[in-house]
Every structure is written in C-alpha cells, then in structure tokens.
Amino acid sequence: TTGKPDISREKSAELFEKAKTYFPGGVNSPVRAFKSVYGTPLFIQKGDGCHVWDADGNQFVDFCCSWGPLILGHNNAKVREKVIEVMQHGMSFGAPTALENDLAELILKNNKFIEKIRFVSSGTEAVMSAIRLARGYTKRDKILKFEGCYHGHVDALLVKAGSGLVTFGETSSAGIPKAFADETIVVSLNDRDALKKAFEEFKDQIAAVIIEPIPANNGLLLQEKEFLQFIREICTENKTLLIFDEVISGFRISFEGAAGYYQIKPDIITYGKIIGGGMPVGAYGASKEIMSNISPEGAVYQAGTLSGNPVAMGAGIAQLSELLRLGFYRDLNNKTEEFVASIQRFATARNYKFKVFSVGSIFWFAFTDLEHVRKAEEIDPTSMEKFKLMHRELLNRGIYLGPSGYEVGFISSAHTKVELEKAKRAIFESLDLVFRK
Ligand code: PMP
C-alpha cells in the first residue's frame, strides 16, 4: 500500500509515448526520464510562484525549480515583463547590445571575485570555456577534478575515479577518447593527502583544479572551509588555477555565491542557472589579466552565435536586480533553515535514519545516520530505494522533488509559509510510510 492513491498520469503517459518516438529515451536531458523513481515522467504544463501543474492537471509545490535557476519561483512578474519588453524589439542580433553591459555591470559591481566576464549559453559551455582558458593561460594540459562533482557534459570532466587515492580518469560516458580522459585526474573530496599526492606526481602539469565549492550534484556534499582553503593554497603554490564551478551555488548561496560565503578567491568562476533568470545562459569570469587571454584580446578562442542574447540578458537583469534587494538572502535562507530544522526534528524524534543537509536555500534528503556526508562514496546506493518510495508518496501529496535521490532541492522566494507547512506535513506522512514499510 502507498497510503494514498497514485495521481493520474494518463496525459503525461500519452505524451511520453509520443516523445519516445522523437527523442532518445523520450527526453532532451536524461534525469527527466524518471529512471530512478516510480512511474512516467510528468509533463509540465505551467508554473506560477512555487507551484507547477502537469498535463493531467495535478498541482505540485515545486522543489526542483528547474534544477535551480528559478530562485524567484515560476513566472515571476518582473522577469516576465522585462523579457516581453525586450522581445518587442527583436530576439537576437549577433551584435553587441546595451543589455549585455547592463547585466555585466550588475554582476561585476556586486561581486569582488571577478573583474571581467564572458556570457555563454549554458553551464556546460561556461565550464568548457573555463577549462580551455586555464589550459591556454598556464600552457599545461592536465585538469584535476573531484569524484562526485558534476561540471556539465564536458568531455574531459565526464570521468570518475577508480580505486586508489589518485587515479587517472576513467570515462563515465561512451564517446570520450581515452586520450582526453587521460588528461583528467580524479581525487576524492575531503582528502588532502590525495590532493598532495596528485600535485607531487604531476608536478608542473596541472593547469587547473575544478570543484563545485558546494558540491550539489551527488547529494549535497558540504565541504569544510579548511579543505577549500587547502585547495586554494596548493593551487597557488603550484601555479595551478583554481576554478570554482558555481553553476548551482552562484547567486544562490549569496550574490557572490560560494566564493563570498567562504571568502575564498578562486582564479576563475563559472556561472549558469540563476544568472539567466530561467533563460539559457552561462558565464565565466576572472581577473582582467586572466580574461585578457580570451579571443579577440587573447589567443584562447571562444565564441557563440547566441551568446549575450538580449532576451536572456533581460531575464538575468530582472532576476538579479531582485536578489540585490536588502534582506533577500537573509529571508530566503531563514525560511529554508526553519523548514529543514522542523523536518529534521520530526525524523530524529522518531529515530528515522534520515538527515536533511542544507546550506542557504539548497537542501538534500539523505537516508543516512552519518553526521556529515562529505564524499561521494559515503552515500549508500541502497538508500536510494527509500528515496524512490518517498518520491512517489510526495507526488501523491502534491510535492514535486527532482526525480533522483542524488539531486538536491531548492527553495525560492515564492515558497510561502503556508505552502511550506503543507509540504512539511506531506513529508512527515511520507517518511512515516517509508520507514514503517
Ligand atoms: N556545473 C554544475 C555545478 C552544474 O550543476 C551543472 C548543471 N546541473 C552544470 C555545470 C552544467 O550546466 P548546464 O546543464 O546548464 O549545461
């Protein structure tokens, strides 16, 4: 028994059957296919505030928020109006517009960690370009990444660690030449010795260390500030650039992202998601000196037909302007903290093997009794069965979480107290069902 009848997915199922004839696996991005949770993926028809509605008319409080970009919730009036205003004058020119200056100014004036920026069209593109910049700048080839950090579907970064402290990358995807993966070194998070060993073994060969300073793609693997500082120091000592991939944490944890939160200055920062207000945008930024290596000023080539697209810039300007309002992050983070603490109290009181990890307005439901989860390998894969049950129960109670237990949830400024209370009750009921099975 599931406690409640399953929601109707008739229309979604019909759409999915059709989609399967058009797209591999029926989707345009893999996790959307609901492979690791119950049932047919829900086809979303509309969103407003903290709610989404699917094709069958089911309503949900949405904690996926398009995987992070929608920090103001769905269909925010200020963002929508700005987009419509811009669109009335054309959608793309492939030539500079004042809107690019406006968004850049908004960012650079309020972020002391970068001096120049380049807009691209996705997080993947931002990371790919940052890696090329680091290699061009240092004239070195190797990249070091951490197991459990996702950086988009960049060839050199779709690799995982094998056994041992330091390993050469082994690809996690077909279609990546071994020679590319060989340039990638993978180490565990929270492991100073592995990092030291990698720098000894590949002395003067590592162009960049890339990390999600708040790793949020393999659960929420919160790192200690001291570890991030250690990475900063070892990079400086070895003339290796430090790249913070802030595609999720940028403008989410604070306006200055995780760099601001930890007060650690990386050499290059990548952004995506929130920066585009829900439109396809990414960006990377660094000091003037490092950025001067980008074409047409420097020798590192990087370009894009739709880069700095005016409609996307408009959405970004409208969204980021809201984030700069006094108290925006304080209110959002307080709201999240209350939500998370109350769920944790409930689970602890009932002795459930369940933790809610959170930072800022990001949270992760983990079926564990560990006090901290800092490395990918500390997650028990069998615990995902519990998430799968919970996901189904939550959908049946009008709560939408991203369809994977390894993904984090997001709270937006549009999540009202009333809706969060409703969500809590649904979460309590679902936990009871999951643990009493
Ligand atoms: N880096 C990080 C940290 C991400 O979370 C993501 C996407 N989830 C990416 C890069 C890739 O961004 P996109 O999906 O926009 O290409």
UniProtKB/TrEMBL annotation:
Residues forming coiled coils: none
Q: Which is an annotated GO molecular function term of this record?
A: transaminase activity
**What PROSITE patterns does the entry give?**
AA_TRANSFER_CLASS_3
Pathway given for this chain reads: Porphyrin-containing compound metabolism; protoporphyrin-IX biosynthesis; 5-aminolevulinate from L-glutamyl-tRNA(Glu): step 2/2
Q: Where is the signal peptide?
A: none
Q: What is this enzyme's catalytic activity, as reactions?
A: (S)-4-amino-5-oxopentanoate = 5-aminolevulinate
A GO term (biological process) for this protein? Answer: protoporphyrinogen IX biosynthetic process
Q: What class of enzyme is it?
A: isomerase
Tell me where it resides.
Answer: Cytoplasm
**EC number(s) per UniProt?**
5.4.3.8
**What InterPro entries does the record point to?**
4pyrrol_synth_GluAld_NH2Trfase, Aminotrans_3, Aminotrans_3_PPA_site, PyrdxlP-dep_Trfase, PyrdxlP-dep_Trfase_major, PyrdxlP-dep_Trfase_small
Q: How does it assemble?
A: Homodimer.
**Which family does this protein fall into?**
Belongs to the class-III pyridoxal-phosphate-dependent aminotransferase family. HemL subfamily.
**Do you know which HAMAP family this protein is assigned to?**
HemL_aminotrans_3 (MF_00375)
Q: What's the protein here called?
A: Glutamate-1-semialdehyde 2,1-aminomutase
Q: Say which species the protein is native to.
A: Mucilaginibacter paludis DSM 18603
